[in-house]
Design goal:
The protein has 204 residues and is of the alpha/beta class. The chain has nine helices and seven strands.
Amino acid sequence: METSVLVPAGPVLLVGAPAAGKSAFAGALVAQGRLPAAAVVSSDAIAEELFGPGADRGTVGAQVFEERDRRVAERLHEGRTAVIDATNVLPRGRERLPAIARKSGAPVTALRFALHEPVLLLQSRERATRIPDARIHVYAALLRDTADARRLLTEGVSAVHEVPGRAQGVRAAEAARRFRFEGCEWREEGRRPAGTANDADTPP
């Protein structure tokens, strides 16, 4: 039996190339009741919600990031966890999140999906909408060059955990069972976890 990792309340970055299984992992967390659906903040879902399917992310990216940050900040202000479902491989896509976390005193956790390119390409081919191979090569290189554990820690991430995948014979549902998350539904239950500050003590 694998020891589960307890992730503290705060922003949780899913970091990996397209087709790495980040959304499947997040979906498994919700399906297993480890997270409420509202805890998953997906840049793709926000883009489709605001601008419809097939929106040009190059054109609407700024608005998507702004809305992402707003939703993350709202959850952190309330002492909850926010799982950011995006590639998060570029430093400029991550840089605002540690600053948002500092305002609430929450630690930032990164979950890396470091799959080798042959596995990424295979998983892409299995998707309903295949991702161009060239895009996968680019993002896989970015993950290695700009989103390794050491780089993430220098940016203000408190802890980095590697999420096992196909190469280890682990499917999304099994990988999800290896993580537990604080700060999900305690406010809806009308109670506060030990050590949580009062609203008056929480910075805006």
